[in-house]
Amino acid sequence: MDVDIISEEENPMLHRTDIRFETTHEEATPSRLSVRDSLAAKLDKASEEVVVHELDTKFGMRKTVGYAKVYDSAEDALDVEQEYMLERNKIGGEGDADAEEA
């Protein structure tokens, strides 16, 4: 899967860079986690520092356009991002033991 960065916008207040990207793929639309890993590898960042927000594939096309936030550290991502986005991107994962008590 090829990942091409379309635009980058620095956001120093939140310690991140907002990125628009395009991927070209052979099979079906790639999963959020595989796109996150490919984007992290391209940007030389850890996977926990990349949060993929949006993936949009037009019907029948082999291109997917997306939006991601790349944080300076994983702690910054945990502080800023909403809980459901962290769960979708498999970042963090604490609090599972409390659910078993109920």
Automatic annotation (TrEMBL):
Domain of life, per lineage: Archaea
InterPro entries per the UniProt record, alphabetical: Nucleotide-bd_a/b_plait_sf, Ribosomal_eS24, Ribosomal_eS24_CS, Ribosomal_uL23/eL15/eS24_sf
UniProt signal peptide: none
GO CC terms: ribonucleoprotein complex; ribosome
Keywords for the protein's UniProt record, in alphabetical order: Ribonucleoprotein, Ribosomal protein
GO terms classed as biological process: translation
Membrane-spanning residues: none
Family membership noted in the UniProt record: Belongs to the eukaryotic ribosomal protein eS24 family.
Protein name: Small ribosomal subunit protein eS24
UniProt lineage: Archaea, Methanobacteriati, Methanobacteriota, Stenosarchaea group, Halobacteria
